[in-house]
Amino acid sequence: MNVVFKEGTIECVEKPLDSSNFILKNKTKINFITPEKRLQYWSYIVSYYLGYMKQEYGKFLSDLHSHFLSKFDLSSHPIRFIYTKRRIFRIVQS
Q: Which of 69, 27, 28, 31 is nearest to 49 (CA)?
């Protein structure tokens, strides 16, 4: 894997990372986003992640590849945490 960027720019991966970057910047406020919007962010993150893994946005050097994958992965944690926390809360209340 020795291709850096599509046409020498990082623009090809900026849009796929937009949702991930938003979640990472606002992770403490994610609880106040509507469930519909959280689901929308989750869908974007998953679909862009799958596209990234299929190399639809180009191939990247291994250090950049690891960096981009970590952004996708870390951005999914706050959303998963909220749904897990709510599911546990419902079980405890029953």
A: 69
From CA 86, how far away is CA 66, in angstroms rounded? Answer: 31
| CA–CA dist 37, 45 (Å, integer) | 12
- DSSP-derived secondary structure for the chain: ----SGGG-SHHHHHHHHHHHHHHHTTTTGGGS-HHHHHHHHHHHHHHHHHHHTTTT----HHHHHHHHHHHHHHHHHHHHHHHHHHHHHHHH-
Tens-digit pLDDT profile for residues 38-93? 888 888 999 999 999 998 888 888 888 899 999 999 998 888 887 776 665 565 55
C-alpha dist (Å) from residue 54 to 2, 47, 83: 16, 11, 28
* Residue-level pLDDT at 7: 44
Question: What is the distance between the alpha carbons of residues 23 and 31, in angstroms, rounded to a whole number?
Answer: 11
